[in-house]
Amino acid sequence: MTDLSVASFLFLSGALLAIGLFGILTRRNFILLLIAVEIAMNAAILNFVYFAAFAGTSQGLSGQAIAVVLVGLAATEIAVGLAIVLALNRQRGSINVGEATTLKL
Amino acid sequence: MAVSFGIVGLLGTRLKKLEYGGWIAVGFAAAAMIVGLLVAAAEMLSPGSYTDQSFTWLHLPGSPGTFPNGFSLVMGSLVDPISALMLLVVTVVGFLVMLYSIGYMHHDHGLPRYYAELSLFLAAMTGLVIADNLLEFFLFWELVGVCSYFLIGFYYEKPSAASAAKEAFLVTRIGDVLFLLGIFLYFTVYATAGGGAGWAASGFKFVSGSTPFLAGAMGGNTPLLTVAGLMMLAGAAGKSAQFPLHAWLPDAMEGPTTVSALIHAATMVAAGVYLLVIASLFLGFTPDDRLAIVAVGGFTTFFAATMAVVHPDIKRVIAYSTISQLGYMVLGVGAGFAMVGMYHLFTHAFFKALLFLAAGSVIHAVGTQDLFKMGGLRKPMRVTAIAFAVGALSLSGIPPFAGFFSKDDVLSSVYTAAQSNPAYWPFLILAYATVFLTAYYIFRAWFLAFSGDKSRDPTLPAAHEGPWTMQVPLYVLSALAIVAGVLPFTPSFGSLFSLGGATSVPPTYGTTDLVLSSVSVGLGLGGILLARALWGNGRVYVLAPDSALQPMRTILLERYYIKAGYDWVGLRIVYGGSRVADFFERYVIDGTIHGFERLGTKLSNGLREGQTGLVSDYASYVVAGVIGLLILLLFVAPLIIASLGGP
Amino acid sequence: MTLPLLSVTLATLLIGTVLTFVAKEKARYVALATSVVFLLEVAALLAAYTVWPGPVNGSPGYANLESYSWIHLSWLSINYTVGVDGISLVMILLTAFLQIATVVYSWEETKEPGAFFGLLMLTCLGCFGVFIALDVLLFFLFWEAVLIPMFFLIGFWGGPRRRYAALKFFVYTHVASIVMLVGLLALVFYSGAKSFDFSAIYVAAHGLSPTVQTFLFLALFFGFGVKFPIVPFHTWLPDAHVEAPTAGSVLLAGLLLKLGAYGLIRWAVEILPIGMSHLTPLLYVVAFASIVWGSVIALAQRDLKRLIAYSSINHMGIVLLAIAVYSQLGLLAAVLLMFAHGVVSALLFMASGSVHHTFGTRDISKLGGITPVAPILATMLMVGSLASLGLPALISFPAEFTALLATWDRLAYWVLIPLVLLVVTAAFYLWMMQRVLFGPQRNIPEKAHDIPWFETAAMGILVALVIVYGILPGFLVNVIVNSPVYGFPGFP
Amino acid sequence: MDTTILATFTPELIVLGAALLVFLLDVLGVRKLETFGAVAVSATAIALLAVVADLGFAPLAVLRTIPASSIDLPLGPSLYVVTSLGLVFQAIFLTSALLVSLASLSRPSDEKGSAVFFGLLLMATVGMLFAAVASDLIFLLLAVEITGISTYLLVGYTRKDARSLEAAMKFYIVGALSSSLSFFGASLLFGAYGGTSFSVLARGTSVIGYPALALAGYALLLAGLGFKLTLVPFHAWAVDVYDGAPDDVSAFLAGGSKKIGVFAFFLLFTGPVLLAPALGVWCPAGHCSTVTLRPTLELALGVLAVLTMTIGNLLALQQKEVKRLLAYSSISQAGYMLIGVAVGTAPALAGATLQVFAHVFMKAGAFLVVAAVLGLGVGPRVEDWKGLARQRPYLMLAFALMLLSLAGIPLTIGFVSKFVLFSAAVQAEGWFVWLAVAGLLNSALSVFYYARFLKTIYLDSPPPDAPAPPRLFAPIGYGRSAAIAIAVVAIVAFGIDPQPVLSGMQAAATHFVAIGA
Amino acid sequence: MSVEELAFLGLAAIAVGTAMLALLVRELVHTILWVAVFFVSLSGIYFLLEAPFLGVLQLGVYAGAVTILLLFGVMVTRKRIFSKEVATGISPFPFALAVVAMVVLAVVAASLPVPVTLVRSYDVTLLSTALFQQYGAWLVLLGMVMLSALAGAIYLVREGRE
Predict the structure, then answer these.
(1) Partner residue facing E146 (CB), from A12, A76, A95
(2) Domain containing A72 — which CATH number?
(3) Partner of C28 at 20 to 30 A CA spacing, among D307, D388, D465, E112?
(4) What domain range includes position A17?
């Protein structure tokens, strides 16, 4: 387990963040947006995990601990998001965010 | 002193709007006259002294700077021979005019205002005469100006009167401003020089103890002093209607005739000459100044007389003659003989007042000022005719009338000056030419008005003499117009003309050079004869429509188009420029502001367009911000900080 | 100093203002009573003011000094410090007179009288505060406090374009106050004074480098200049004046413009003389520009109030010029002229207001020959105009004369610019009088009559001032020169 | 767990307990709004007293739970630390919660979901309180997340209202995006320093020895937390959310929850990072330079501050709807606060803190008034408010004071706070003076729309044919009146004499900066 | 190239590919399938990094719970489960921005040339001790987040009957 460099992981997590951002910016379906947010969040979690592996001594532990907490947090966020999706769907019959633009200017 | 009389007179007339309001004013004027006479008498008894009383008006303590001795402005009264003389003129003529007004103005409305303004006018003039410093002088000078403004515009409902008043004020204001600059210029020279601690500390005083304040420092001949003198001349030109600031005076005839009499004889226009006299005695003129003064005086003398030659309006003729005569006075001062100017002022005051009051009688009687409508007034208005004739003779310089002595004195003084400086010659010639013109135009007026059998315009009412209040002044002034010339020959009265050493009066009054006197008298008589030939006995000489002289006549009637030129400058250049500036103000300066406002509105609305309501867009702003921050922090900031010299 | 006279006066005004607001229909009586008490207090202040206490610890001393700690932190100390010198006293005197005059003039204001008089009082209160404040924050506080009542006075009681004018006024002057505030803050901190107290800043400012002084002065000059107003930041003034109710115009022209000049003298000239000396050419240019521009534009105006407003720009330009020459004489002239202009412009605005509601218009080209209908009004307008064009024996003359003399003393022939413009000033006033007062009667309404007693009384007060102080300016001069600034070492 | 920890978290526990109580009561079938409201009001009030006592306010010494000796200790490995500035912020947060819950007592008592409303309000407050004692980046972000989740749901709690749900949706999406950005940034910092505790960050020794990682991390954190603080360009959600949210929630969002961002910025960019040493050499495009964090971040903060103020004000300039106008103004106010962060000296922090304090009363108060007025049936557009001062003089006087305070007119707390803040910027000299100038010019710009609004309320008269709002003269409720009255009194009282609060904040800020060093 | 590297590259490629597919496919159900694969691939990377606890957690929470949750969401909001995502007009600005974001992040990542090698790993016991003792506060806070989420979400989705 000694040959992987931090740069390669950074590439991966950066790419995932970018994909997440891409999704958030371009998708209109609320559920897709949720998924995009999750992808971005996973990029952050991934960072914590591998930085923990690189950090050494007891510091590294905190990285994994954070990752655990973040997994929980991300799941909670999804739940809240889904609750809003459901309420929105009931309200408007649509979960397309492009149609929810009454508040503007 | 007399100032307070004037003010009380003002109050008195304001209080009572009744007929006798005027009498109150007359009473005060009489009192002022008596005081004036007493002052003059006192001055005659102890000739050549200065009586100076003053109090501090405004004071700054000294400090190490421009004014080490502090800075003061004072108010005070100075009685010396010239001011006594002038006081005499002002109060006597003032009283007579005031008396005359009782009869002349009785049918006008707004009399309280009239008497109040007239009283204030006199008061201001008196104040000017007895001012003991240049600033106070200026103060009353302005006050005289504003009173003339009110009086000329007395018939304010007439647009022409209102306009003439404005014009008079404005034109004299130009002179005043230059005068003020002159004061500043002298101040620069004398601020710390002269007697006492200098002008700054003692407040522009004329005299210090028994000598002129600036005696020690006077007599310089620097460009600065020359310019200062020219500014004095400009101020005097404004008030005394000298070329090129003469334009207001003929129009000032819009005022009541009494006012014209006062303005022309004793108050306003005299102030200008008085300023020159004062300046020449207390401040000193440089040779260049004197030449300039002579030039202005000489030219104006002739220039004004030419315009008087053709004018049909009786008052305007006299008005032009005033300008012309003022030119003589200025000439005298410029020639270096200040007291000669005063002398002519003294005599002129009486005969000019006489002429105006007589003309006033005529106007009062026939209700018109057009000479060509009058005629044959000799019979119904004998007193007036004689009075006018006395005035006219005096004006023409026919011995033994007063004008002869003083005018002769002016001529001989210029002649004297010309001996040493040939540049004076042209003006001497002009002055002589004017003698002829003067006699011609004034007798043209006399013949047109009084000779013949009846009025040329049959619609005119039957003429009659005025009430006694109008006649008494005529008598008195006639008498004075006859004797005023010889009064200075008496020892006591003569002492008023001999200001402690600086007299500058030729040794005799117009009698030395028999040749010069003969020429001038001859010219005068010639003028009278020409007038009689052309206009005598009710004749009217009409210039043929195709005459070669016709354009010239038009030019003269149009006053050489100078007023038109002024109007053009005022309307086109000044007013036009101001319209352009106003346009600039509204559309460029304010427009810029509005532009900013619109820009703000546009920006605001444009930015708000970004608030689309679409959450993806909001997210994209966030992402754009992140990208921007990344670029800023990773690439731009280190560069900036490095370029600023590190952290 | 046993009785804190300044605080007592401030309290009087404060209580009076509150009572006025509450009094509704009876507001005018409360306002008048307060004004009279205020005037008496000012008289007491003047009577007590014989000599300034002399320099204290290297800073100029001020009379009636009171100081209480207000906000005190390690790096800044703000106090309630008030005090007066001759300059502020004269301005306070002006405030007192104008307050009485405006209250009397507005005697029959029927639209929300409580608020109207209350706002008038508040404006005067603010001005009074500005004139006595010797602490940056206190000064700024009062400075801004003037803004709001004036905004409402214009915006609620004003003419047809009042809302635009009120906003323009508010925004312009507010932007300026902000620049001024930055300047003052920078002054406090760059000089290392840390205290907002005038004396502390004054002492500390000596240590500033000339460059810093110059920049600070520039900021302050702009800040105060807009209130002056200086060209080209003046365009709020005509609009505000024209649209404001008469009482508002009076206070605007009479007092608010003076705030700028006063501020410049107190907070910039006294503290940063070196900075000023570096910027003198700029000041001259601006002053000349204001003088010329104000006069020339006034000539083209047809609205009576606009004309007077532009002439104010011209006069305040002369004030600036007199300050800029930086000499005893100049400063004296500036303060005198501030007083004179305060009284005269107030008189003129009152007269034009009366013209407006007597004859239904202020358009000079529509008016004509009002003298026979309203002789008193005509007299007032005439006295105001003549005073404004600098006629001797009226109040402006000694001020303008000393101002011009001081200018001559420093600038020599440049004085020709204000001199020539004096003629232009005379021209537009004369033209206005000729059109409005004289000539044949035009557009005179059927029921036109002379002004009511209270307007006569209000203007009468001002006319009396114009004449009395015109003939005897010595009283004012003695008070003014009895100020620390005239004793500053090395003051030319 | 030992009791000292519990004692340390007394205020948090009180509020948390109250939240649990509310949820419990809801489960038990209690439906009365007044009950929940009373719980919320008393809990926040008691917690507030406790915090004030902990700040060393002598008359309340009995309530003190944290000994003075354990406040303002140097940074250690602990996840939380009690600083006096944190306590000040806790007090501010509690004040805003108190005001909003007090006003919410006047909501219609049969309103559905009142338990959720008060419960989430209290939970959001709990998050804010925790954020104020954070000494660890993750702790801080999690606390922020508590507030975040609670407020997303608060905005949507009137679930039948389409606008409200739409607002919740937008808030949620941008919020989730921001929190993933924050956590990503935090992960980069973790990678750079090997830990997330502020003591580790303050040490500034990079594990990887490479500045870019830390800089990128801070950039992402600026964005993620800037979202909370509504910094431009992370602001766009705020307007829609404030507009769509129930009125009292808007008051809480603007007056309370956004302030959490300010304290987070304090923690991240002034305290710990303040003296972080040079990070190393960074060679973008061949220009190698030593990167020091603080000046680099100052630049970014300054840019953000100016952008936020200016764009916020410009956006507000032409806004025609009352709530959106206030929302935009709230954005620009955040810019002023950021000046304090950018300057970073103790005086500046004190100024920014005072500005935050002032903003609670001004902005929460203003939104509460808006809530009251909209409750009277007056329309949401500015023009609907024409001449309202004549019908509701006292309410509008309160509103006018709030607007004047927002505009920074003297004798209001808004003036004092800006004065101190800008003074501090000038006092710091250097290019911060320009920040002060920008701030002052912006406050001049802001006067435009405040003045226009005031003009509409006071000077304009309603069109003659417009129907009068149905309940124009109805009472607005005691709770709401009390909340508004408190806000007004605070605005004026602290505007006249800010010394008590200001000296406290100054002392706290001084300690805070010292801790960072 | 070692086995680890090869495994990492493979997993990374799968992660990136599935993430993109998840967002780009038209059918929502497919999306969720791709997401599940994505979660699994990440879990593999965690195992590779010798973080088995996280790997398991990832599988359980994400690949399990979250995926089910999402599927549930899709089911509730759709009348037909297999319906295509409607192509809505996507404005060019966000799209361009997303591309730029990718580029910038790539540049940032690429500019980190220092290869720091992996040092050590931890076992689950140590992690759980730390999690519940040293970093217990995080969990407490997470609990509060969940409390809020629970209370609010339940209220939000509950059909209003009262």
Answers:
(1) A76
(2) 1.10.287.3510
(3) D388
(4) 6-99
With beta carbons less than 8 A apart as the criterion, state whether E149 and A76 touch: yes
**CA C296 – CA C303 distance, rounded (Å):** 15
Of B614, B617, B627, the CB nearest to E101: B627
Task: Please give the torsion angle defined by the CA atoms of residues B617, B622, B623 and B626, in that order, rounded to the nearest 10 degrees.
Answer: 160
**Which residue type occupies B509?**
Y
pLDDT of residue B385: 83
- Flag whether C490 is in a domain: no
Query: In this predicted structure, what is the pLDDT of residue B15?
Result: 44
The residues in A 13-72 lying below 8 A from E, measured between CB atoms, are 14-23, 25-29, 31-32, 34-36, 38-39, 42, 46, 49-50, 52-56, 58, 60-62, 64-69, 71-72
Closest C-alpha to B577, from C427, E81, C380, D110:
C427
Tally of structural domains, chain C = 1
Provide the token pair at D516: 């960072």
Residue D210 CA, chain-centre distance (Å), reads 34
For position D361, what pLDDT does the model report? 93
C231 close to C113: Cβ distance less than 8 angstroms: no
Cβ-Cβ contacts under 8 Å, A43 against chain D? 180, 184
Closest CA to D324 of D385, D376, D250, D392: D250
Whose CA is closest to D7, among D48, D63, D78? D63
Task: Specify the DSSP class assigned to residue C191.
Answer: T
Contact A10, E112 (CB under 8 A): yes
Res E88: pLDDT: 53
In-domain check, residue A105 = no
Quote the number of domains for chain A.
Answer: 1
Touching partners of E (3+ C-beta pairs < 8 Å): A, B, D
Instruction: Kindly state whether residue A104 falls inside one of the protein's structural domains.
Output: no
Give domain status of residue A52, yes or no: yes
Mention every residue, 6+ apart, whose C-beta is less than 8 A from residue B552: none
Burial class (CB in 10 A: 0-12, 13-18, 19+), C449: exposed
Q: Which of A76-85, B625-634, D409-418, E115-124 has the lowest mean pLDDT?
A: E115-124
Instruction: Calculate how close chain D gets to E103, using CA atoms only, in Å.
Output: 14
Supply the range of the domain harboring residue C317. 5-480
ipTM of the complex: 0.88
Give D278's strand partners: D292
Chains E and C touch (3+ CB pairs under 8 A): no
- The DSSP string of C92-148 is HHHHHHHHHHHHHHTTT--SSHHHHHHHHHHHHHHHHHHHHB-BHHHHHHHHHHHHH
Q: What mean pLDDT is predicted for residues B92-114?
A: 76
What pLDDT is stored for residue B13 in this prediction?
46
Nearest by Cα to D344 from D405, D397, D390, D300: D300
Q: Whose structure tokens read 């409580």?
A: C114
Residue pair D367/D100 in contact by the 8 Å Cβ criterion: no
Q: Is C137 buried (19+), middle (13-18) or exposed (0-12) by CB count in 10 A?
A: buried
The predicted structure's pLDDT at residue D33: 87
Contact D139 E149 (CB under 8 A): no
Q: pTM of the predicted model, to two decimals?
A: 0.85
The three-class DSSP label of residue D315 is helix
Residue C486 lies in a domain: no
Q: How confident is the model at residue A69 (pLDDT cuts 50, 70, 90)?
A: very high
Up-side HSE of residue B203: CA atoms within 13 Å toward CB?
21
Intervals of chain D under pLDDT 70 = 1-2, 204-210, 271-290, 516-517
CATH ID of E1-111, from 3.40.640.10, 1.10.10.10, 1.20.120.1200, 3.40.1160.10: 1.20.120.1200
Task: Report CB contact under 8 Å: E97, B624.
Answer: yes
